Here is the input.
Amino acid sequence: MKLFSYESPFSQTLLKLAYSCYLNLLWVVCCIPVFTVGASTTALYSVTLKIVQERENSLTRQFFKAFRENFRQATVLWLILLGVGLFLAGDGYILYHLFRVSRGAAAVFWTLISALVIAASIAYVIVLMYVFPLTASVVNTDWAMLKNSFFIGTHYLFCTILTAAIHFAMFYVAVSLFTPVLIFGEGLCALLSSYLLSGVIRACSFDPAAREAVSAGDAQGPENDASIQGPENGGDAQGVESDGSGQGAENDANAQEPESGGETL
Here is the structure.
């Protein structure tokens, strides 16, 4: 295989870097109004997850399609997280100054309060890293997205640490070593993170009801085969028509999530 052929690892690496640069530009432009950061980040992860799964087509069309489809929920989630983040930052600033001027029992008390704020901040960062990739991948309620982001992040702790390390490394290199790397910025971070998150999200969003439907279809034999079709943002698992006796009756195997109406997390 030639070094510069389209299928070579070298060419594919350059192509992925070009993708990340272009997606970073789209992400930055769409983040300018500030309140659209959530929708922009969700659209970014929607495209990078498709790149990892080799389902990318037109990056621009896919980005803005995901931006429109997830705008409401992603914006609500972002505004909630923005408010919580500002609250934690304000608490940290106040506690820092109180701790500096406190002595004795007061210092011990503020140290304990600071530990609680630090723990809350860690939980906040975990949710922030997972909530937008989840929004790009599955259908669920706002509260379920926040809750599942925390539980998935703590369950897959190694993946969480690596994802945080990717973003920290980008920040450190941009600030301390080579500022022009910002041209790749969040686009490259999201692409690298998607290689880690793709399998995690797929494992956590699998619908057990769909699995049972597949097993039931296999047990019925080839004449009454119920195949399962999962939409892109996953909600229902639907069976296609069964023509075992020449009749067109449908074998409906809709699997619904009782709380969220989306894929099981």
In short: The chain has two domains: 9-204, 208-265. Confidence is low (pLDDT under 50) at residues 221-264. The first helix runs from residue 9 to 31. The two ends are 42 Å apart (CA to CA).
